[in-house]
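Weekly structure sync, notes
Attendees: PL (lead), two postdocs, one rotation student
Agenda item 3: pending single-chain targets
PL asked that the sequence for the first pending target be pasted directly into the notes so everyone works from the same version. It is reproduced below exactly as submitted, 359 residues in total.
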Amino acid sequence: MSRHQLNKIEQRVLDNISNALLMFNAALELSYANSAAEVMFDVSTKHILGRKIDSLIHTSSGLASENLQMAVDSNIVFTDRELRLVLLNMREITVDCTVTPIGERDGGEGEVLVELQQVDRQLRINREENLISQHQVARALVRNLAHEIKNPLGGLRGAAQLLEGELPDPALCEYTQIIIDEADRLQSLVNRMLGSNRLPNNGEVNIHLVLERVASLVQVEFGADLQIHRDYDPSIPALFGDTDQLIQAILNIVRNGARAAGSNGLLLFRSRILRQFTIGTRCHRLVVQIDIEDNGPGIDSSLEGKIFYPLVTASEDGTGLGLSIAQSLVNQHNGLIEYQSEPGKTVFTILLPMEKKNG
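Predicted structure, written out during the meeting:
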């Protein structure tokens, strides 16, 4: 079936369907693609007509030629959800795919219709909603737990001080001082778990000055062997937020990246502007995207989905509070932190709306 075989009404209907439609003949060669398919593949139909499906789409399952041939032979419709595809331009997308065998047309051989519905955006929205919800629940739990711990800690410290004044041998004060010091250490940890109680001091923030401040702090802390590359969009306007809070949030992420990268490690700071971008369920006219990329070994798969929880850490000397605090600070700006990780490349993405009342 080609475009000239369609009448004008059929052509108009198919070209106005929002899902990509691909028709393959019995030899599994492309015989038709609608306008949505041209947009998805970023190529005109005339350049891909006659090509085999395996030369158009790369995937490990679902749309392989043998699967389509099986659908044709068995005359069975099948659907594959959340299928990852690699297109001609090497762009990866996630789609819901429905394959429908079509009987013989005009005495010819059977064909198969492939319908692709791109679901990347909805999956991202669902993932972000889940991330925001999980973080809010975890923070509420930690706050309640921390408040319950603070009271007995204060009593423990006070009792140790009273005991210290009653001891007959000053040498025994060493033991009460250990109790006091450990109580102070736990009190400091609890305060960090609770986070800052001060109100944000919002104003106009140049995000690149924030990134450069973080870069200078990390460079001093980790030394000249740590390489920091920049890829900034200089056209990004000032956003509205708390400079100190944003510095702290980004610094927590960058420190983790520097530790992961190790000696002679490499960090990349990237900034971009996104238009009409959705965070959770809310669409924002302008959003700043900040990527912090490191070349470390990647995040252990056992921590996937949990790294923003308090006290979750892969580091032997870490407290597991850095990313949790960073997420809280960014959430206070109506933003979100996401990440993608594989060996040799971990990217934390900070999304911050540009609206003035986002603090």
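Discussion points:
- The longest strand covers residues 266-279.
- The longest helix spans residues 120-166.
Action: rotation student to compare against the earlier draft before next sync.
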